[in-house]
Amino acid sequence: MVWNIFKQQRADWLSVLKDFGKDAQLVLLQEAQTTPELVSFATANYLAADQVPAFVLPQHPSGVMTLAAAHPVYCCPLREREPLLRLAKSALITVYPLYNDQLLMVVNIHAVNFSLGVDVYSKQLDPIGEQIASHKGPVIMAGDFNAWSRKRINALYQFAEDIALHEVSFTDDHRRKAFGRPLDFVFYRNLRVVDASVLVTEASDHNPLLVEFHPEMDKPAW
Q1: Which residues pair with 117 in a beta bridge?
Q2: Three-state DSSP class for residue 81
Q3: What pLDDT score was predicted for residue 220?
Q4: Is the dihedral of CA 133, 83, 2, 43 positive or negative?
Q5: Structural domains in the chain, sorted by start
Q6: pLDDT averaged over the chain?
Q7: Distance (Å, rounded) from C-alpha 5 to C-alpha 72?
Q8: Of 42, 76, 214, 219, which is most buried by a Cβ count within 10 Å?
Q9: What is the pTM of this model?
Q10: How far apart are CA 91 and CA 110, in angstroms?
Q11: What is the pLDDT of residue 83?
């Protein structure tokens, strides 16, 4: 499950998480505030909850948060400042052992939103690309990429192509859009997409993405 949760500012966010997140082995949240309700949900349903606060609000830190049914064997937080607003956006790289002895790399990202050109946007992606390129197993990279301009989406697609990531497509595509372009994406490598859907909800200003993957057993790792 991939969802920009809008700092839990709208009603029903918790019921959506409980209904759809509890069955997911990975939940990648953006704009997640460490409120008692979210912490309680995470600790009740997942073995691991890792967060990279992008900035600290008066009460609770806010940033990307990855909930997982397994403990990560590697965890790398990344931050990049918005050049115009000077607020930070965060990303989190975690690696989990799979049952087939492979290691799954998961990248949870909230991309820089307000910038002139794509230099800062690409700068945020570069260290992520370096880690994905050196990883030998399957990869999931997902989140709110703020790809609202042609230059941004071109930069994102070029980035994905350079490190051999495929994009998950959604038949009924109800992803949140800005200027006619979707903001949320899921990319992957060395996995097979079994199902992909977008949940329409008013519980955030983004709709959650739900994707089921199976490992590819018969293909080389990379």
Answers
A1: none
A2: strand
A3: 47
A4: positive
A5: 2-215 (3.60.10.10)
A6: 90
A7: 23
A8: 42
A9: 0.92
A10: 6
A11: 55
